Amino acid sequence: MNPMKFCPECNNLLYPKEDGKRKVLLSACRICDYTEPAENYCVYRNEIDRISAPPVVLRDAHADPTLPRVKGAKCPACSYPKVAFFLANPMESMARTFACCNPTCGHNWTGEAQQSGSR
To answer: How many helical (H) and strand (E) elements, i.e. helices and strands, does the chain have?
Structure first.
């Protein structure tokens, strides 16, 4: 990680600046005319350790007519016979998230929908 550098003359932040004629990278102050050769040629690094999103909980699946329903499935929490499904985070996983369509239950789960008999 590159430490932030400050101008010794006016104490403002030094920014990367290219000297096109000499083809070198400089650290330059935007307030005064101070410049110095850059110690490191890395200008920016974005490190992502882990991408995580909070789990999606859908409590009002019963009121959303755009969600597809699973025929013949039931909620494992209350055995309600209508279950909707959606992709909670398609960038992370293509696993379906299921939501109970019972307005008083609102249970959400991932994995498989429980079938209540024949399709």
So the answer is: 0, 9
CA distance 28 to 7: 8
Q: What is the pLDDT of residues 66-108, one digit of tens each?
A: 899 988 899 999 999 999 998 876 666 777 889 999 989 989 8
Alpha helices, H only, the chain: none
Domains of the chain: 1-47 (2.20.25.10), 61-115 (2.20.25.10)
- How far apart (Å, rounded) are the C-alpha atoms in residues 58 and 100? 9
Give the CB-side neighbour count of residue 7, counting CA atoms within 13 A: 16
- Measured distance CA(88)–CA(99) in Å, rounded: 11
- Are 102 and 78 contacting, i.e. CB atoms less than 8 angstroms apart? yes
**Distance from C-alpha of 3 to C-alpha of 37, rounded to nearest angstrom:** 15
Nearest partner of 13 among 23, 21, 5, 1, judged by Cα: 5
